[in-house]
Amino acid sequence: MQLKESLTLLQRGDRSISNYMLAIHTAIDELVIIDTPLSNDDITLYALNGLSTDYKDIILSIRTRETSLTFEELHDILTAHETYLKRIEATQSQLMATTNNTQHSASHYHQRQPRNY
């Protein structure tokens, strides 16, 4: 029961998906050792419950599937989504930096213009 409870309480937090899934896999392996294997659906639910709202779209997609995912398939899907989120974040950061630089340059330009009275 303690191993299942640890899976229930496990959160991704600041970990990468790979590290998060490794923690899940370790608990699953310990359950197998004591002859209490989990179904693919149970593993999927434990993994999805520990994800943040950044993953809400992919969570909905996975929960509405008609077929179960293997651990490896789930890991691949979540890793791909993590990569997508990082790409979006990098694009937004780059856009913000460009916007800030443009605004700074524009205000600096206006400060240097002589005033006509």
Largest sheet, in brief, is: none
Low-confidence stretches: none
Query: How many domains is the backbone divided into?
Result: 1
Order of helices and strands: HHHHH
DSSP strand tally: 0
Assembly type: single chain
Q: Give the helix tally.
A: 5
- Any idea what the radius of gyration is? 23 Å
How would you describe this protein?
The chain has 117 residues and is mostly helical. The chain has one domain. The protein contains five helices and no strands. The chain has helices at residues 2-9, 17-33, 40-49, 56-63, 71-112. Helix 2 runs antiparallel to helix 5. It is elongated. The termini are far apart. The mean pLDDT is 88.
Properties at a glance:
single chain; 117 residues; mainly alpha; 5 helices
Secondary-structure map:
Blueprint lengths: L1 H8 L7 H17 L6 H10 L6 H8 L7 H42 L5
Helix pairs in contact: 1-2, 2-5
Offer a concise description of the structure.
This protein has 117 residues and is mostly helical.
